[in-house]
Amino acid sequence: MLIRYKKTFEKIAMGLMSFMPNEKDLKKLQQTMKEYETEENRQLFLWKEDDIIGLLGVLFQQESNTLEIQHISVNPSHRSQGVGKRMVKSLKDMYPDKEIIANNDTAPFVEKCDIC
């Protein structure tokens, strides 16, 4: 189930975010987390099954009615089980009127999800 990020989940969210190639540096990671916490047009979601095992970060682009997936990460022990695809599908179900697009980092994965 896709749930909205709350500050109480900060450590697990940072751990999942650190799996993204551009978020390895601690200062960069902290800056990214701060952006999700303070900027209105950014939203972080967590994927919860028994535990929180995935993360999805989006940028709402109001002028074009799109959601840009900026970050997507799954706990390594839960990869190759369709978790990432379920996260993207759940996002599409939450925002059926929005077009979901990817950035350069997430495009290779999002294209495999076949959400169009």
Structure overview:
This is GNAT family N-acetyltransferase. It holds the Pfam family Acetyltransf_1. It comes from Neobacillus thermocopriae. Keywords: Acyltransferase, Transferase. InterPro entries: Acyl_CoA_acyltransferase, GNAT_dom. This protein starts with a strand and ends with a helix. The protein is globular, with a radius of gyration of 13 Å. The protein has a five-stranded mixed β-sheet, sandwiched between helices. Helix 3 packs across helix 4. It is of the alpha+beta class. A hairpin with a 4-residue loop joins strand 3 (about 50-60) and strand 4. It contains four helices and five strands; from the N terminus they run E-H-H-E-E-E-H-E-H. It has a single domain, classed as Aminopeptidase. Helix content is about 35%, strand content about 30%. It has helices at about 10-15, 25-40, 85-95, 105-115, and strands at about 1-5, 40-50, 50-60, 65-75, 100.
Walk me through the topology.
Blueprint: E1 2-4, H1 10-17, H2 26-38, E2 42-48, E3 52-61, E4 66-74, H3 83-94, E5 99-102, H4 107-113
Parallel strand pairs: 4-5
Antiparallel strand pairs: 1-2, 2-3, 3-4
Protein name: GNAT family N-acetyltransferase
Organism: Neobacillus thermocopriae
Pfam families: Acetyltransf_1 (PF00583)
Order of helices and strands: EHHEEEHEH
Q: What's the average pLDDT?
A: 90
Q: Uncertain regions: pLDDT < 50 for 5+ in a row?
A: none
The SS-based structural class is alpha+beta
Number of E-state strands:
5
Portion of residues within helices? 25-40%
CATH class: Alpha Beta
Structurally, the number of domains stands at: 1
What is the rounded Rg?
A: 13 Å
Q: Largest sheet, if any? A: 5 strands, mixed
Q: What is the CATH-assigned architecture?
A: 3-Layer(aba) Sandwich
Coarse morphology: globular
Quaternary form: single chain
CATH superfamily heading: Gcn5-related N-acetyltransferase (GNAT)
